[in-house]
Amino acid sequence: MTKLHDPDRLLHTVHFESPSHTGTLLCGLQALRCKGLLIDVTLIAEGESFSAHKAVLASCSDYFRAMFTDAMKESRESEIRLNGVTAAGIRLLLDYAYTSRLALTLDNIQDILSAASHVQVVAVVEACSNYLQAQLDLDNCIDIATLAEIYSLTQLRKRVYRFMCAHLSEFSRSPDFQRLSLIQLEHLLACDFPVDCSETQVLNIVIQWLKKGGERCQASALKILRRVHFAEIPERDLESTLALCSDPCISRLILLESCFQRKMKQDRNEVIPPLVNSRGMELAVIKVGGFGLGGITNEVTYFLASSGKWRHLTSIPHVEQCNFGTAVLDNELYVVGGCFNQSLQENIHPFGFRYCPQANKWSTMAPMHRERCRFSLNVVAGRLYAVGGSNETEEDDAHDGDVCLCECYDPVTDSWETVTPTSGSRSQHAGAAWPQTSPHLLFISGGLDRDLVLSSMLCYDQWTDTWQTKAPMLSPRADHVMLTIGDKVYVCGGWKEDEATGGRQLVDTIDAYNVAEDTWETITVVPTPRYHAGIVSVQSKIYFIGGFHNDALFDRATASVDCYDLETNTWSSKDKYPQDVWEHTCVTLYVPRCRDDMEVLPLAK
User: Where is the BTB domain (predicted)?
Assistant: First the structure.
């Protein structure tokens, strides 16, 4: 033993921790409880007695910790009566305190939740909330909502009402829907979650609830009807609904409230979005793909004016790619074609994907007839039009060099069909739909015909399937963007060939095309022109997001966001994108405001 105390011998400290100690401790405490040893308190609920140790209760319950340590009179008593909780709930809660295990079922969940909430066992309350969320369906959603409201389970309550709204059409047809209390229905209509039906259907759902609820519910009709978005109900639908409503009192209130809301909407000059229903939705600026400091990315991010921040939305479900076409049809994002690198070679593909923001899901669509990248994709009268671009067979097919091949996608049949091509090849061009005439038109401008930067513009008539030549742009452009805003089509960004050096030269103007007069004019000069910026319009504003200022190898990219206001003819700088980004595309899309909090729970199959 003397060697152990040798001062010349360096001793190492060893820290020992037994992984089984926690389990051993709990087993020992449970054994003491079962044998009635060292018991210092008895809990009484519904006339039943339960022996326990104050130290164990205080260690896992805020309620008992305060009771036994804050000089309350109960701290000196050996019996504690618990009112408002069941014996079954206390029994199961004590089992958890001594074993860390708890079996939750639909039969015992209310007893356990009541007891855990009463004595403030937070971990069990959270477990009950998660269990109820997992069991959520149309048959029990009202009961779960009621429990969430009784026990102030805020997140669970949000989940339940989000679920009800997401499946409102089916939920409203179930007998249980009439069990909603006045307060619950009012909250359902006011909580601003996306719904799966039109506002006309929402009104009919409210009318049926009011009729079946009797005089008591009808007395609160105005309170409920104020939650209906009448400005989004077409006048013809409103007239039909009023004609079918047999209650004159409800009809009169509907008429009064609808007139009031429509007047308020007109005063604010608000535009109803092209959605089945705008409840819970907000227009977002969407950044799709592109390049960043980490290289190519398939990430899709979004910006809401209400939050003022960029957030992750989703990712394109494909190998990382670029030079694809993007478009928005019926508030769904389409990403079609593009190219990716494989073994240091560019691979061009024809495949497409469709993203639904309400369901937060991607689905595949029929591939184009031919692979494309660096092409234009635009929506015209409910169809997608893919025009021109580059493909892998151009060099081998002499015919492709003489025409710009085009095709059209029908989302109803999920199929593509060829349309009349344009003369000459064209890639890295821009397109914009013109929906203000009948038939709707498609304009195509600029781009490259092999190595020549074009200034020409063409117009496609979907009714006659023909192309017409229009007045050329004021300057050749490639890799630019066309935007339809109000009564004009605007061209922004892009580059042309520098006649002196043969290199690329940024085009620093925004030019506007007057469709009626077939004329162009320069609107403004871009203060910081860029290559490959994301350019998008929101109402009367044009945003330039990211891009790079020159062809230098280093320090060329930017994250800055500049905005041009057409109404005031002024430029302003906005908060930067979170990182440098370029060669991305930007669109606008309505997304759920609540998507940061939760996802829509699917119906069980």
Answer: 39-106
In the predicted model, is pLDDT for residue 193 greater than 90? yes
Give residue 563's domain range.
Answer: 428-579
Closest to 186 (Cα-Cα) out of 150, 238, 222: 222
Nearest to 556 by CA among 576, 589, 580: 580
Do residues 589 and 328 lie in contact, with contact meaning Cβ atoms separated by under 8 Å? yes
Report the distance separating Cα 572 and Cα 41, nearest Å. 70
Q: Which two tokens stand for residue 484?
A: 């339809």
Does any domain span residue 522?
yes
Burial class (CB in 10 A: 0-12, 13-18, 19+), 90: buried
Number of domains in the chain: 2
In a domain, 58, yes or no: no
The residue from 237, 260, 279 where one domain ends is 279
What is the number of other CB atoms lying within 10 angstroms of the CB of residue 104?
18
Strands 332-336, 352-356: parallel, antiparallel or unpaired by DSSP? antiparallel
Phi, psi of 158 (to 5 degrees): -60, -45
Domain contains 479:
yes
Show the beta-strand stretches assigned E in 424-473: 430-434, 441-445, 448-449, 452-453, 457-461, 466-470
At 508, which CATH number? 2.120.10.80
At residue 4, the 3 state secondary structure works out as helix
Measuring CA to CA, how many Å separate 545 from each of 432, 534, 587? 19, 5, 11
84 phi, psi to nearest 5 deg: 85, 5
Which stretch of 23-37, 341-355, 535-549 has the lowest confidence by average pLDDT? 23-37
Q: Per the confidence metrics, is the pTM higher than 0.70?
A: yes
Tell me whether residue 357 is in a domain.
no
Q: In whole angstroms, give the CA distance from residue 376 to residue 356.
A: 21
